[in-house]
């Protein structure tokens, strides 16, 4: 579903991502974690074709990311919108069918697809509800439905629980756990509960990447998020990839 080989990217200097290698297989759910500034959002932008790699290869569904974009669903952390603008939950989901829009009107088939997507996230009964009237968790599930409305083969999510209350997070976790049975998922998150509910494995991104199996041990979590241990984690990752420039051995 996706593969990176010696992928590098820089905005200026130094490299934001260096020698990144990973694969996502059909039916797999991969959680991306790592410290702020480690390159997680940059990796998502590369996968969406919004940025071009500095060097290396990145293939999505066997294509260049830009060409694969119509088959990739994307869910941002949150959506900026004017709360006074009269737009319903269904209208938001129909945005996932913009490429099918004919002469200013969506077809009946497009509306059926959008309603099915809302059913998948258990919000069909709120289809006509103003988007601004929904809770944070409901809005996030509507954005997931919008991504599903394009019938994607791969779903990318950027910290979907970052802007919702813990009291309504459980329903979102249930939604994502059900989706992982139907579609390949790459999910950026700091939420360990979400990783446990959705993830098959974890990709730590901190300029370089290192893949971990689940469950994560306390030591691995310290390696990823502790400032002092991130240096050692990076050194070990380089060593495992054949780069001994940061090693102390001869």
Describe the structure.
The protein has 250 residues and is of the alpha/beta class. The chain folds into 2 domains: 2-216, P-loop containing nucleotide triphosphate hydrolases (Rossmann fold), CATH 3.40.50.300; 217-250, no CATH class. It is 34% helix and 21% strand. The protein is built from 9 helices and 9 strands. The chain has helices at 40-47, 65-68, 89-94, 108-120, 136-148, 169-179, 192-198, 218-225, 227-240; strands spanning 2-9, 17-24, 29-33, 55-60, 72-75, 154-158, 184-188, 201-206, 208-213. Strands 5-6-7-3-8-9 form a 6-stranded mixed beta sheet, with helices on both faces. The protein has a 3-stranded antiparallel beta sheet with strand order 2-1-4, covered by helices on one side. Helix 6 (169-179) packs parallel to helix 7 (192-198). The termini are far apart. The mean pLDDT is 82.
Summary tags:
six-stranded mixed β-sheet; globular; 21% strand; Rossmann fold; 9 helices; three-stranded antiparallel β-sheet; 250 residues; 2 domains; alpha/beta
Overall geometric form: globular
Tell me what the CATH architecture of the largest domain is.
3-Layer(aba) Sandwich
Assign the structural class, choosing from mainly alpha, mainly beta, alpha/beta, alpha+beta, or little secondary structure. alpha/beta
Distance between the ends = 39 Å
Largest sheet: 6 strands, mixed
Q: Name the CATH superfamily classification of the largest domain.
A: P-loop containing nucleotide triphosphate hydrolases
Radius of gyration: 19 Å
Approximate helicity band: 25-40%
Average of pLDDT = 82
CATH class placement of the largest domain: Alpha Beta
Order of helices and strands: EEEHEHEHHHEHEHEEHH
Q: How many β-strands, per DSSP?
A: 9
Strand content: 15-25%
Strand order of the largest sheet: 5-6-7-3-8-9
Q: Given the structure, what is the number of helices?
A: 9
Q: What's the CATH topology name of the largest domain?
A: Rossmann fold
| Uncertain residue ranges | none
